[in-house]
Amino acid sequence: SNLNEELGQIHYVFSDKTGTLTKNEMEFKKMSVRGVKYGDNDLVSSRAHEETHGTATNITSVKLSTDKSRGTRAKAQGIPNVDFDDQHFFDVLYDDKHPNHDAAYNMIQVLALCHTALVEKKDGEMKYQVSSPDELALINLARFSRVVYQGCDDDGNMKLGWFDGSERTYELLNVLEFTSTRKRMSVIIRFPNGRIKLLCKGADNVIAERLENPKADLVITTENHLMDFARDGLRTLLIAERELSVKEYEEWNSDFQEAYQDIHHRKERCEIVAEKIECKLQLIGATAIEDKLQDHVGETIKGLKEAGIQVWVLTGDKIETAINIGFACQLLTPDVRRVVIDAHRKSLVSDQLEKANNEITAEMGAALIIAGSSLNYALRPDFRAALLELSDKCSVVLACRVSPKQKAEVVRLVKEGKPGATTLAIGDGANDVNMITAAHIGIGISGKEGQQAVRASDYAIGQFSFLKKLLFVHGREAYRRNSILVCYNFYKNVVFVIPHLWFAFVSMFSGQPLYDPWIYQLYNVFFTSLPIVLYAIFDRDREDLSELNYDPVAYRPGMEEALFNTRVFWKWVLYAVFQGCYVLFVSFEGTDNGKGDDGHLLGLWVQGSTVYTAVVLVVTWKLLHFSSSHYWFTAIAAGGSIVVYFICEAILSSIKYTELWGSFKPKMSDLRGWFAYTLILGFSTILDMSLWGETETSPLRDEDFQHRLLSLHPKAGGFVNGKVFNDKHTGYDYSNDFGTSPIFTEKQKSLGGKKKRFHTGFSYEGEKENDL
User: Fold this and answer.
1) Cα angle vertex 99, ends 93, 104, to 5°?
2) Of 319, 301, 395, 321, the residue nearest 20 (C-alpha)
3) For residue range 601-628, what is the model confidence (pLDDT) as tens digits?
4) Which among 16, 83, 342, 670 is annotated as catalytic?
5) How far apart are CA 761 and CA 758, in angstroms?
6) Catalytic annotation present for 688
């Protein structure tokens, strides 16, 4: 397999977001209920708004205040995944006379019922087993609001414990499960009063198109709230419902049961039937959940970009959410021009791609942001070339609202359009399997969404930041060592065979061998095998390989195939041919007409043995010369291989029925032979130093690295065990905790009293504009 060295030649990285760049630890932050926004802790109080405007039932973008100890009550009560403590919301929820009480009551009731969670009770403590962390955050918000889902009874009825101390039973009629294609899930519930309702939650674009009145003021206001949530980098869902008559439900359920019993096409038929009832929905509200970034994601992506690797992030989030997270993880930077392709019609997508290709150049280092709806058209055969051309001009690509199928198609687009490029896909869930298997190398993150991605991958890691070491250290070194290993093995065999070939001309193709048949077979087995194996395992061109984490430029030789290509290969071969020739002639001239201690002329086998010895010495010396590091065991292996050769030759020379019988002592006592060895090794050293550049063995030496390190990290004071120190980190990270990058929601400060604008790009209509 060539997977290890391909890790050192990656050109494109395709990454999922949730669970890959983020921790997949969801915390409920904010929500919008019937046009009223709850959870903002830095804005005006909604209570003051109600006093000013008379009532909160008027649809407006109400901005509420919360306690400074936001989320502490939930944690104090032992309720995880909740960072929401808007006291006004609870005042509304618990006051049945408040005009917004019914809306808040219904919202919490839907969150407590619309799920597929299982209740596990152990040692008096109740825990929920859920299919996704988002679902857990929503259920725990209801629990934090003192509306507790207590599980199902033997008949499948759902039980809720309410804040007034009552317990109510709801009959679960049907579950329309979430899939990556549907992007929503629904349950059909018979309420205690006999009413039947469909409760639905899902992606905002999916739910919005199924609303009965998508142009209503409530919908527009809620969409504005979603935009606010997305700008804060939060994951959003829409919550909706539909009341069903008994007759309407029974007719639909008959079709659903028929589809469910079709064992061959169950999934397809159930989705078709679900479409019939998941329509004419009434909007209840929206939720906003935070998924914190993993540690060191920003510096990992920054390192990949500095190495020249193009990073594609494929996410199911809204464009605004994806952009905000892109800034948080340093995928996007303020000085990068953004190109947004988000049209919903084929002609508009074509216009946006054409306009972007005309105005964007590779020198701009732009960022391409494309929506899933536009990607549907862009991946068609007539648009693929334009999309690929535009992506080549961009340093990063951010695809939003993409399905698992689209992820795989994007990877195949690059693989087919760039045959010489090596692709890597990384993800953590089952929805990433198609993408992982489509790439040259698949990386699975062992996270909280099961082990499907890990099982389908070539490598498994614990978190995204480990990718940096996997590529920059292990991948880069595997490529460097294996490139030298392959070239050296050809080299040493060509050096070995060329004297034999030339001797065929000298002997007029008489069939006379130059080497003893016994010792001929041991060349690759004992005399030259162990040193190169140890080199391929242990050689390093840094005293501390962790330094490579801070030197992305050192990764580029693999991307450029600097160590193994046609030119380098033939350079090794031609050099070996030349060395083989002068080894033969110098050895022959050195032992020509030589005489042993008994006065007899040295025979052909002594001359052949001299050539053989010179070959072993030359190839071993060559290995020692281009090795970047030396250890006691590599020195023993190199010297030991030569000693083993002399021992084998001495043994064969003592056996009467071998060709080498009696040749060892005359050869060892011939001073001209030793002079020939010295001359050959000296000339080889001069050739290596003058003709053989370091790019073929160790392309980036330490002095180059130190210079680049200071340019990449100007505050780096030096090294301690391979780690940079004196590098200050201030600001906040994506989770609003003290971290390593400026908070991405912070407003740009003015310079000299003037506002500074960033992010020049294309608007959703394709018109050029300034985003900030």
Assistant:
1) 30
2) 301
3) 456 777 888 889 999 999 999 999 888 8
4) 16
5) 9
6) no
